[in-house]
Amino acid sequence: MKKEQPYLTTITTTTETIKNRKYNPKFGDDKVCECGHPYYRHFDSYEQMDPVGCKYCQCYEFKEDDGTKVTVLFPGGFKPMHQGHLNLIQEYTQKHKVEKIKILVGPKERDGITQADALLLADIFMDRLYNKEKVTIEPSKYPSPVLTAFKEVENAKDPCNFTLATSKKGKDYERAHDFFTKHQKGEKYYDLLSHNVNVVKIDIDMTPIKYRDRTDEYNETPISSTVLRQDVVNKDFVNFKTNYPYENINLIVQIWTELIILENNRTKD
Ligand SMILES: [Zn+2]
Ligand SMILES: [Zn+2]
After folding, report:
1. What is the Å distance from ligand 2's center to 32 Cα?
2. Which pLDDT tens digit goes with each residue over 70-89?
């Protein structure tokens, strides 16, 4: 028997080939998409089952969920966590196949912010995330958080799929791609993996978030912890706010207060 496909397609040949996607009544209305929602919810029942995309989320195209679960490793400095990090974490938590997101916080101190401080600051944000129970924040066990991610995969004994966090257009894309490639069959790190431990790819289709409404030259550049720390050193709350354009003002003030305390301690002596 022929395997049913999620979309029936007809090819219209004019000057270019257009694929028209149509609802397939034989596919199975209750089959689950990678977004976590059923097949039939990806069509508009009021408009002759127009393939409009998922009714419950941003998912445009139905892709059948194959049941595999993934742990996302997110290594970084997080001194401190900013909007770019938060948005990426949030995108992963909303994926049905993502079971866990491990944030691996590096040990290097930056402008008086230690690893311990970074862990506490990151924790402040967790309460406002959807599916926050999927997220853990851990100190990286090795000098480099990326090395910690390699070791994490190497030491995993139970069957699991791992991926390194990245957005498709972010500056971390290269390292995530490299992490994936090195763990594929025939490559350097493949033999170190236990049976049924795999490294897979889930890239988030998201453009890195850029600064807006700043009073200095960093407008339109990607949000970064370096610029954020500079705002703290300058005690410049107006620009500091721009590191968290989607956060609630009370939360921003809370983070600001913590950072100013650290900054005052650093410059005291
Ligand atoms: Zn979907
Ligand atoms: Zn959906």
Report:
1. 9
2. 999 999 999 999 999 999 99
